[in-house]
TrEMBL record:
SUPFAM superfamilies: Thioredoxin-like. The gene is resA_15. One of its GO terms (molecular function) is oxidoreductase activity. Residues 34-183 form the Thioredoxin domain. This is Thiol-disulfide oxidoreductase ResA.
Length: 212
């Protein structure tokens, strides 16, 4: 038995030394940076398609904040656009304790702020659609896909992160994870499902070449 345990121990040590285990201890099952229960990152004012600028503090009066990372250019993001807009419409009232926002960090021409403004007007988007050319907010949240959703509670801790629902085909959706997380957070509880795999296009982070 000791020999068996020693072999396992040596294998784990070898894997770690090779750098295969690279995720931080606090990372979630699918998120490389955040775990459920972590304090969400904050950000300074970012420009939005409505001509205003929004910081994380701009929504401090809301008990729940939904942050969706999306863009113009990804087919998956486009497919979810109507569902995201419907979610925002549902919680649009002044008395609502829920805020729904979207953030784009892609730097390609199709995802520029001007193109975002054009799309927001054309599609009648009713949520603040922010642009972060520094890409820092996406990196801080560990967002890797578009679309990818984060539901934050009153204390701005992550209660859910991942896909909006269980099917990219709107007609086949049986569970809306984001809606479930909102309902739970409003009651001060955790949703039954707190993390899922976000399905979509890769976020286009700028590659930084390391100096040799």
């Amino acid at each position: 038995m000791k020999t068996s345990h020693n072999i396992v121990g040596l294998l784990i040590l070898a894997v770690c030394s090779l750098g295969i285990i690279t995720s931080p201890l606090q990372a979630g099952k699918y998120n490389p940076v955040l775990d459920v229960g972590d304090q969400a990152p904050t950000w300074e004012k970012l420009p939005a398609t409505d001509g205003k600028s929004y910081a994380s503090d701009s929504f401090k009066d809301k008990d729940v904040l939904v942050v969706a990372f999306t863009c113009n250019s990804c087919p998956y993001a486009v497919d979810y656009e109507e569902r995201l807009n419907q979610l925002a419409q549902k919680y649009k009232g002044k008395d609502s304790q829920v805020a729904v926002i979207a953030v784009n960090v892609n730097l390609i021409p199709a995802d520029s702020l001007e193109k975002m403004k054009e799309r927001a007007e054309k599609q009648g988007l009713e949520f603040p659609y922010l642009f972060d050319k520094s890409q820092q907010i996406g990196q801080a949240f560990g967002a890797t896909r578009t679309p990818e959703f984060f539901v934050l509670n009153k204390d701005r801790k992550v209660v859910y992160m991942g896909a909006m629902d269980d099917s990219t085909d709107a007609s086949k959706v049986k569970q809306n994870y984001v809606e479930q997380a909102i309902a739970a957070a409003l009651k001060g509880k955790q949703p039954k499902t707190s993390e899922t795999i976000a399905i979509g296009c890769n976020v286009r982070y700028k590659r930084i070449r390391r100096k040799k």
